[in-house]
Amino acid sequence: MAEWQRTHTCGELRQTHIGQTVVLNGWVNSYRAYNDQIFVDLRDRYGLTQVVFEADHAELFAAAGDIRNEWVLSVRGKVRERLPGKHNPKLATGDVELVADQLHVLNRCPPPPFEVMSVPLETGLGDPELAGEDVRLQYRYLDLRRPTLHRTLNLRHRLNKVIRDYLDTQGFWEIETPLLGRSTPEGARDYLVPSRLWRDEKTGRPHWYALPQSPQLYKQLLMVGGYDKYFQIARCLRDEDLRADRQPEFTQLDLEMSFVEIDDVLAVIEGLLAEIFHKCIGQTISLPLPRLSYAEAMRKYGSDKPDLRIVGMEIIDISEWAGSTEFRVFKEVVAGGGKVRALNMKGAAQKFTRKQLDDLTPFVQQFGAKGAAWIKVETDKFVSPIEKFLPASTQQELRKHVEAENGDLLVIVADKEEVICQALGHLRTHYAEYAGLCDYSWGNFQAAWIVDFPSFIWDEEEKRWAANHHPFTAPRDEDLSLLESNPAKVRAKAYDLVINGYEAGGGSIRIHNPEVQSRMFAVLGMSPEQARQRFGFLLDALKYGAPPHGGIALGLDRLTMILSGTTNIRDAIAFPKNQKARDLMTGAPAAVDPKQLRELGL
RNA sequence: GGGGGCGUAGCUCAAUUGGUUAGAGUACCGGACUGUCGAUCCGGUGGUUGCGGGUUCGAGUCCCGUCGCCCUCGCCA
Question: CA of A330 and C1' of B76: distance in angstroms?
Fold first, then answer.
């Protein structure tokens, strides 16, 4: 071992080490210089240790005077107990300090573009004056030194390990699938990779691989291949616009099982989740998770990924009541086939000023609604701009129907059903915290399954039915007969895992019957020839004895984000891209050498 | 592609109604200091107010354009 190499980490030294000569390696977190002594806090992945340089060691002391933040040091010295009253309870190593007798500067560091220095996690003070995210992304290797990111990536490591260990005990095999595949239509935009060896004979242009949006097709083929319990921690790529919880490349736990129905898949994932919560963050979750139908989620929460941390803020259909009132706006919407629904914010009436109530209308207009009516419910009356249209008996009926109590605030939107869901759903999440009807503190995890999704949604642009999940998702057996006659009513054997308002995963039971698969393509307006051209290999495979099968994929970046308590997916990824899909550190995407392009025929 | 927010010192921010030489904290440089620990105290360096144009006696501030970053709608089976 080289003399500069560490014998201990910076989070390790305790009173039991007093008197020992040790070597620490690490980065300078901060330094405090006096006439006759210099304190340096040395930081590594494991913690922070105070190093003291004393003036009686003249040469060493002079060298230590040059030390600046983020230098990489090796310090040898003797561990000693701190002076009485000088112990630092904020540090795990705060009872001791290292008195230096030898210093190796392993590397210097210019003043960094932003301050990395961080107070230890155990102080709970967090990172002071965190620099802007774009600067931190440009110097990601510096940002990664912060203990917060160390902690998140450690959590992510444990998540991966727990998944592998648990699924192994359940008999799953981890199998890799190709990154270079064939572009298939439907779904997200592909990232394409040109082939150097193959090109189109007519145009001379290269043929293309597509990077996987998910290993969907391969995992179904593995089922046909007899690998009845498969999983993979797989990178997926989609060339679509980004969000706070979406990256162009992301990681999924991809999983598939044969000879199963919905309950079998959900049971495996519930077992895995319990293990994850227990082993990654020391929490217990109660099983089984609640299941909500898509229809119910939309009706009560206006969303297929409701945040169930919000309580006392449900949407209630009041169409029947509204249609019978003398208020023209309501009557006309109901007569025209629309709906009227109210969001009841329990006990929130007094929190909203007149201005804030007036601002509800522009808020819902973002989602296509014409306006929002509000009612402050008081013991003996309604306070509302539409109060004059509602005689006392009518008010009484509404009060009873929505179970309104003194102090509740009702927000009413009359429109097409989708518009109401959008408007009131967003209203619910947007105002929950202000209305005091949610607990967003870390540790409150509300998970649920959303089931019974519709198989199809109408694509207005293309004037055809489109697969809501994907075209291989099996319809519920009892809905098969509606496939041709009433596609809108067909429910899929699909399920989403929703945690705290995020879609953490989703999957389905697949179609294993070629005849059903053909009918499915027909509904989607795809001719047998088209289907054959696009998915021929899968259709062939289904013919050659495909077992009934189904699976799920969990978004591990999102899961890490949720478990670590951040709302930014970039905080859960070591080297993320920004909102325009750029890597600010490497500068990707970038132009390439024309020679490379010529080789590819581009 | 649409909507919103932001852009001032290396970093985090301030700057009254459009009005004097654009300030502070931190980092950096120099000095002081016998135990600090997000050290403290004194002094100093540091600015094309993202960029371009316009209005005005006068623009960090108002207008137009443009670039960048964030949030969001569309999009993401």
Answer: 35
The count of other CB atoms within 10 Å of the CB of residue A583 is: 16
Q: Which residue is nearest to nucleotide B68 (CA to C1')?
A: A134
Nucleotide nearest to A110 (CA to C1'): B28
Contact A298, A428 (CB under 8 A): no
What CA–CA distance (Å, rounded) separates A346 from A377? 10
Assign 3-class secondary structure to A337-384.
CCEEEEEEECCCHHHCCHHHHHCHHHHHHCCCCCCCEEEEECCCCEEC
Residue A167 in contact with residue A231, Cβ under 8 Å? yes
- Secondary structure class of A214 (helix, strand, coil): coil
* Other CB atoms within 10 Å distance of the CB of residue A479: 19
Phi and psi dihedrals of A152, rounded to 5?
-65, -45
Q: How far apart are CA A105 and CA A63, in angstroms?
A: 9
Q: Which residue, chain included where needed, has tokens 């290292």?
A: A98
Element (H, E) at A72: strand A72-81
Q: Is pLDDT at A124 greater than 50 in this prediction?
A: no
Task: Say if CB A297 and CB A304 are below 8 A apart.
Answer: yes
CA geometry: angle A296, A300, A301, nearest 5 deg:
110
pLDDT over 80 (residue A185): no
Note the CA–C1' distance, A97 to B75, in angstroms.
56
HEC secondary structure over A208-225? EEECCCCCHHHHHHHHHC
Strand B nucleotides, any atom under 7 Å to a protein CB: 1, 10-13, 25-29, 32-39, 68-77
**pLDDT tens profile A152-179:** 999 999 999 999 999 999 999 999 999 9
For residues A470 and A472, what is the distance between their CA atoms, to the nearest angstrom? 6
